[in-house]
């Protein structure tokens, strides 16, 4: 799996514009009407740990001329992804701490990415809510009436209708 | 549908008219404590529901939320009302105003129909709408993770509105309650009827004892018992048997008396068949029969002789006829010249006349003899007929006399058997028979008199009357108790039917919620994953249990309950994931607005940032987001991230509290789409 290709596909679907770095095929830039940032794909988690800050600063420095004093300047994302796994819990904790560093840009770190779903999970903060449900109603009343086989059709209709409780009782106690 | 504005005056902390225009895309309302952020949310809720749910349960010193809905600060207000505007996306705006008197210009039902597509009428539907639209800081965990599992299930069921059988469930519950009360009433009727029966029975028993304890009456009862030979049964039964016995006795006496008369006559007749006169008479009659027979035989013989003589005389008639003709001719012709004209002999006149005379005499004798024989024969035949009659008569008398004795004996035997059937045994031939019959009649008459006397005594008793009356009342009371029992059983059957129906309704509702939750589950999972309450436990699960009473349990890791595992902030993050999932799963609500009232209390910056990104993800779906915040920096972050578009813009509203004047808008800032910063090729 090419992580960058997968990320590009996902971001395009979310209406981001993207662009590969001309001098580094492991880097891709992205932007939409609200956010912008870059994705760096690393070979190892150690590479992320060693270089994330440098990569972030480099990105900001390279685009300094474009980052005019706009509110959007504060909507920058630095995303570091790798297919390699974190070998220890300590390394995982270090990787998480990168995300909790709020300095300059919002950081997202993903490791052990083995498929498109893993990449998608990492990029969720940039994406619209995906699992929107539309509960399509069936004829629930008919379903319930079918189950209410201990009532006659008239009684079931009365239970669902406007008949008062007392009238319903009368119907049960004195059936026609 | 999206909110366009809220306008309030004299409401909560808002004294003078305050109007907040909402951005079509989002609005961030920022202000310090007491600046009126929550009053804006309260106003929206109050317009829709007529109450403020977060304060609804609170009361103190006799005051509750209704006393604090309207301005209570210093200074007067010009009016008291709250108004909201809702745009339908087609340029139409629904303006809803509520004052102290309620909704103005529309009913709750009409409003509900505008905003909710499901059949959940009036304030109930609007209440569900508010609970799933307006997420308040103080309600986040209360309405989700801290909620009892059964309430959580009910909340989700009502909120996502997949199975709106609440009216059926409510009606079934009402019917069950009514039926239970009806059954209690009917049971009471039955118990009352039974208590009447037992009380009457007790009275009757006491009266029976009382009756038997009255000396005369008691003696009468003893005598009647002896007379009817029926020792069992109560007084009433004894009376019945006594009356029956008396009737039998009367009938027997009457029959015996009738029999006696016949018996008496037959006995006398029977006695007469054994007297010497009777025997002599029989002998005489037998002699008479013999005599008559002999006379008849003699007459037959004489008659036969007369018949023979008559026959002979009859045989001579032709000859006599010839002689008569000769006599006639001879007399007419006379002598012809001295000669006999018949024979031609010479004869004188005297001789001739003498001959004729002789001939005439002979003819007369012959004629007389025949006449005499015929007369005798006729006389004898008459005598024979009379003798024959006499014989028959005597024979009949003899037969009659002979049969009488035998017949009388047969009849007497029959009468004796009839008397035996009446329990009176006699010997008909005995001298004592009649006296035995008389004794039998007398004995029965005495018994009848004794019985009637004692029956009359027993019946005349006043106690007995009361016993009879009680018996009638007991019959009526027993019928009433039977009827009441039938009604109870019918009502219980009806109750079972409705309970089963309620069970089925709840079950089907539960099934539908199960199915809907299964559909909502991925959304909950995504929101939980995005909000990341816990570093390690990145997935949330739910479990349903219970059949009719359902429980919704949220779990993380290996079936751990986050309610007890998570910190305050983590629980809030989880609560947000849960409530946002519920909000987004609603398919019945036309209002596409999410309102959050200070949702980041106790949530750290890292998770607040996740919330901002989730809200941004919701905004990307075109939904309107309104959020109040205290922190200006976070408000600023939200305004930057909540995606403003050309036709879906945002606003930042800063509120302030002006002493003695109430809430006021400090500043309203439009949030517009942001320009691209990177030089990227599309």
What would your notes on this structure say?
- The complex is a heterodimer of chains A (about 180) and B (about 675).
- Chain A has about 180 residues and is an alpha/beta fold.
- Chain A has two domains: about 5-125; about 135-175, no CATH class.
- Chain A is about 40% helix and about 20% strand.
- Chain A has seven helices and five strands; from the N terminus they run αβββαβαβαααα.
- In chain A, strands 1-2-3-4-5 form a five-stranded mixed β-sheet, sandwiched between helices.
- The model of chain A has no long low-confidence stretch (mean pLDDT about 90).
- In chain B, the strands form four sheets. Chain B has a six-stranded mixed β-sheet with strand order 9-12-13-3-14-15, with helices on both faces. Chain B has a five-stranded antiparallel β-sheet with strand order 2-1-6-7-8, with helices on one face. Chain B has a two-stranded antiparallel sheet with strand order 4-5.
- In chain B, a hairpin with a 5-residue loop joins β6 and β7 (about 95-100).
- Chain B starts with a strand and ends in an 11-residue tail after the last strand.
- At the A-B interface, β1, β2, α5 and α7 of A face α6, α12, α15 and α16 of B.
SSE topology sketch:
The complex is a heterodimer of chains A (176) and B (682).
Chain A: H1 3-13, E1 17-21, E2 24-31, E3 36-42, H2 45-62, E4 76-82, H3 89-99, E5 106-110, H4 116-123, H5 140-147, H6 153-160, H7 165-173
Parallel strand pairs in A: 3-4, 4-5
Antiparallel strand pairs in A: 1-2, 2-3
Helix pairs in contact in A: 1-4, 2-3
Chain B: E1 2-9, E2 18-21, E3 26-30, H1 37-49, H2 53-56, E4 59-60, E5 63-64, E6 81-87, E7 93-99, E8 102-104, H3 108-115, H4 122-133, E9 134-136, H5 149-160, H6 166-213, H7 215-228, H8 235-272, H9 276-333, H10 349-421, H11 433-460, H12 462-531, E10 540-545, E11 551-556, H13 562-565, H14 568-585, E12 593-597, H15 605-619, E13 624-629, H16 632-641, E14 650-658, E15 662-671
Helix pairs in contact in B: 3-4, 6-12, 7-8, 7-11, 8-10, 8-11, 9-10, 12-14, 15-16
């Amino acid at each position: 799996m090419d992580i960058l290709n997968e990320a590009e596909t996902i971001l395009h679907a979310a209406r981001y514009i993207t662009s590969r770095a001309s001098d580094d095929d492991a880097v891709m830039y992205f932007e939409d009407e609200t956010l912008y940032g870059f994705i760096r794909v690393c070979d190892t988690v150690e590479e992320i740990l060693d270089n994330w800050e440098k990569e972030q600063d480099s990105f900001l420095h390279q685009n300094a001329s474009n980052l005019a004093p706009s509110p959007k300047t504060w909507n920058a994302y630095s995303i570091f992804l790798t297919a390699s796994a974190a070998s220890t819990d300590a390394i995982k904790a270090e990787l998480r701490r990168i995300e909790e560093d709020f300095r300059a840009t919002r950081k997202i770190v993903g490791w052990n990415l083995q498929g498109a779903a893993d990449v998608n999970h990492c990029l969720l903060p940039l994406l619209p809510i995906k699992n929107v449900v539309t509960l399509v109603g069936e004829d629930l009343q008919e379903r319930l009436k079918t189950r209410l086989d201990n009532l006659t059709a008239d009684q079931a209709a009365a239970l669902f209708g406007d008949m008062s409780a007392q009238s319903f009782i009368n119907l049960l106690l004195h059936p026609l | 549908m999206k909110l366009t504005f809220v306008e309030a005056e004299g409401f909560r902390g808002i004294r003078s008219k305050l109007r907040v225009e909402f951005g079509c895309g989002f609005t961030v309302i920022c202000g310090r404590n007491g600046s009126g952020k929550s009053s804006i949310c309260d106003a929206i809720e109050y317009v829709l529901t007529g109450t403020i749910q977060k304060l609804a349960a609170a009361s103190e010193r006799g005051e509750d939320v209704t006393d604090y809905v309207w301005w209570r600060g210093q200074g007067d207000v010009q009016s008291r009302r709250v108004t909201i505007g809702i745009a339908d996306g087609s340029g139409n705006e629904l303006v809803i105003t509520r004052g102290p008197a309620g909704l103005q210009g529309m009913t709750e039902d009409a409003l509900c129909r505008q905003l909710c597509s499901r059949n959940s009428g009036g304030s109930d539907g609007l209440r569900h709408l508010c609970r799933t639209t307006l997420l308040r800081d103080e309600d986040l965990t209360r309405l989700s993770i801290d909620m009892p599992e059964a309430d959580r299930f009910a909340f989700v069921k009502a909120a996502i509105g997949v199975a709106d059988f609440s009216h059926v469930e409510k009606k079934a519950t009402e019917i069950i309650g009514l039926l239970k009360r009806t059954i209690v009433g009917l049971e009471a009727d039955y118990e009352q009827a039974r208590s009447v029966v037992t009380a009457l029975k007790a009275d009757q028993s006491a009266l029976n004892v009382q009756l038997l304890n009255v000396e005369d009456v008691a003696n009468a009862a003893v005598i009647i018992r002896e007379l009817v030979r029926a020792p069992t049964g109560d007084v009433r039964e004894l009376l019945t048997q006594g009356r029956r016995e008396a009737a039998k006795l009367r009938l027997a006496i009457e029959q015996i008396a009738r029999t006696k008369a016949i018996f008496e006559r037959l006995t006398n007749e029977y006695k007469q068949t054994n007297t010497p006169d009777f025997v002599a008479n029989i002998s005489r009659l037998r002699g008479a029969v013999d005599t008559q027979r002999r006379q008849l035989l003699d007459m037959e013989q004489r008659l036969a002789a007369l018949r023979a003589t008559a026959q002979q005389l009859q045989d001579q008639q032709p000859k006599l006829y010839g002689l008569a003709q000769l006599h006639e001719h001879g007399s007419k012709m006379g002598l012809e010249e001295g000669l006999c004209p018949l024979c031609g002999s010479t004869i004188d006149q005297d001789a001739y006349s003498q001959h004729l005379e002789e001939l005439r005499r002979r003819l007369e004798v012959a004629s007389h003899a025949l006449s005499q024989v015929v007369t005798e024969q006729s006389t004898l035949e008459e005598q024979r007929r009379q003798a024959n009659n006499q014989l028959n008569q005597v024979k009949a008398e003899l037969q009659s006399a002979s049969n009488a004795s035998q017949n009388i004996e047969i009849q007497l035997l029959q009468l004796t058997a009839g008397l035996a059937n009446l329990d009176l045994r006699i010997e008909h031939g005995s001298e004592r028979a009649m006296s035995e019959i008389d004794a039998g009649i007398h004995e029965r008459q005495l018994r009848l008199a004794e019985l009637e006397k004692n029956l009359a005594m027993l019946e005349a008793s006043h106690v007995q009357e009361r016993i009879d009356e009680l018996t009638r009342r007991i019959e009526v009371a027993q019928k009433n108790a039977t009827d009441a029992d039938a009604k109870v059983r019918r009502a219980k059957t009806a109750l079972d039917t409705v309970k089963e129906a309620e069970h089925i309704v709840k079950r089907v509702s539960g099934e539908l919620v199960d199915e809907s939750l299964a559909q909502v589950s991925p959304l909950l999972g995504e929101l939980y994953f995005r909000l990341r309450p816990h570093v390690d436990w990145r997935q949330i699960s739910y479990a349903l249990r219970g059949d009719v009473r359902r429980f919704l349990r949220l779990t993380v890791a290996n079936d751990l309950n986050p309610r007890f595992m998570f910190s305050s902030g983590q629980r809030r993050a989880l609560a947000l994931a849960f409530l946002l999932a519920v909000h987004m799963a609603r398919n019945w609500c036309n209002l596409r607005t999410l309102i959050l009232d200070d949702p980041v209390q106790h949530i750290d910056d890292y998770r607040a940032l996740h919330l901002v990104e989730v809200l941004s993800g919701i905004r990307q779906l075109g939904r309107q987001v309104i959020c109040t915040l205290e922190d200006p920096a976070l408000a600023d972050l939200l305004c930057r991230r909540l995606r403003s578009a050309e036709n879906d813009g945002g606003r930042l509203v800063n509120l302030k509290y002006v002493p003695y004047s109430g809430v006021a808008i400090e500043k309203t800032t439009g949030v517009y789409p942001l320009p691209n910063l990177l030089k990227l090729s599309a």
